[in-house]
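Risk mitigation, structural track. In case the binding assays with adenosine monophosphate fail to produce interpretable data, a predicted complex structure has been prepared as a fallback.
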Amino acid sequence: MTMYWEREIETLPRPELEALQLSRLRQTVQQALRSPYYAALYRQLGLSLNAIGSLSDIGKLPLTTKQDLRDSFPYGLLAIGKSDVIRLHSSSGTTGNPTVVFHNQHDIDSWSSLMARSLYAAGVRPSDVFQNICGYGLFTGGLGFQYGAERLGCLTIPAGAGNSQRQIKLMRDFGTNAVHAIPSYLHRLAEVMAQEGFDPHKTTELRIFIVGAEPHSEEQRQRIEAAFGVKAYNSYGLSEMNGPGVAFECTRQNGLHVWEDAFLVEIIHPETLEPVAEGEIGELVMSTLDRQAMPLLRFRTGDLTRILPGTCPCGRTHRRLDRITGRSDDMFIVKGCNIFPMQIEGVLMK
Ligand code: AMP
Ligand code: ZN
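Fallback model:
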């Protein structure tokens, strides 16, 4: 009945979840072959749906890069008729073509459900007032959170980015319970609150902050929690995989559940491109499992992370990603060891 706590799918035993992934992966390959880009590439490589008999067969498929998206701008990856597309989002490249992602009604519905599910996992409830402090428009954080919080049933305030005084007034006037914002902005918001004489600790309404869209550390999370008297949850996403709603922390705050019914996760070594050993840090590679307008297979996110071991006490069976520890283009090798700048920063900070 509820559209947000998808208990059955979120707690699916691993064998069933993997069976679902395999059937969706095969559907996705079939769908991707309707796009000019994948049709030509797979024909050239002699690949067809027959290549995928098990989940591990994904390794037989070529990786897709951001550059591939740019090169096939604007419609090369579109797998449906243009008249069925209802939305596009785009990330602004500073050079060359931007990357564009298209959605049909099914895609927007499934993205909204993933977002509602994510917010619910972080403790947001339909009775809450949700203030979305982030840019609307081509950036996915605006509409992504808006649709998800509406689907969950929240009174959703499309506050937009910036203008801290107005943000504080909205919080006061409507009794905001949950906020989504990027971590770097929250420092500024805390300062303005102090100037305005608004003590967030004294409002009992403010309860949950969703922070994401950019790298931040555990220390930063704790600072945000202390400054606002809230619990802060990490939200990870990227426009190529819809935007937010890819991986989200539950109330246990122990890593980000990646929604494996919608995304297939691989962690590869950024140079050898082979899968890393279980639990090791590498580059996150993702395939969409439930997207029709623009399916993407083995997309290289460029983000470095690892899959956390063990299961989460919340009961969700979808595996958890560690915080993003950097970008694969930043990695360097010293005496055979992979070193990531964020690791050094972490040590120095301590
Ligand atoms: P965009 O596609 O423009 O929305 O940017 C997506 C990128 O933002 C990801 O590939 C990550 O590099 C970064 N990002 C998003 N969410 C997080 C997060 N929670 N922690 C660290 N980096 C993030
Ligand atoms: Zn959990």
